Amino acid sequence: MSDPEITAELLQTINILEELEELMDLAPSLEIEEVLQEAWLKISLTFPADFREATSLDAGSEGLRRYLRVRAFFADPIQNPLSQADLAIYYQNLQPPD
Q1: Burial environment of residue 30 by CB neighbours within 10 A (0 to 12, 13 to 18, 19 or more)
Q2: pLDDT tens digits for range 14-62
Q3: How many Å apart are CA 13 and CA 65, to the nearest integer?
Q4: 74-87: pLDDT as tens digits
Q5: What share of the chain is helix, strand, coil (3-state, %, to 5)?
Q6: Taking a C-beta distance cutoff of 8 angstroms, is the pair 3, 71 a contact?
Q7: Distance CA 9, CA 79 (A)
Q8: Going by fewer Cβ within 10 Å, which terminus of the chain is more open, N or C?
Q9: Are residues 77 and 70 in contact, defined by beta-carbon separation less than 8 angstroms?
Q10: Are 73 and 82 in contact, with CB atoms under 8 Å apart?
């Protein structure tokens, strides 16, 4: 994935979201889970608009990584092959046009 828009910071942010998702699963109370969810939402809002639009129905860290793989595939399909499953899930989660 050599897309110039895919920065180390963006990849780190996805890792942070994944860690927050894991912490939400372990939260000892609803209050703590809500705080973690709020942090997750605020962090996810830092992503570029195309990420937020493309992953609005699949916004977890897994969906964000899938979007990176799809972008890389369309940028250079030879260097960045994509599984049929990833592509199918990506298209299932696309928002219909308004």
Answers
A1: exposed
A2: 999 999 999 999 999 999 999 999 999 999 999 988 888 888 888 899 9
A3: 11
A4: 999 999 999 999 99
A5: 65, 0, 35
A6: yes
A7: 23
A8: C
A9: no
A10: yes
Rounded Cα gap, residues 61 and 57, in angstroms = 12
Q: What CA–CA distance (Å, rounded) separates 62 from 19? A: 12
Instruction: Please state the φ and ψ torsions of residue 60, each to the nearest 5 degrees.
Output: -70, 175
Residue whose structure tokens are 């894991």: 22
Q: How far apart are CA 68 and CA 60, in angstroms?
A: 13
* Tokens 């942070």, located at residue: 16
d(CA 87, CA 83): 6
Would the pLDDT of 97 be above 60? no
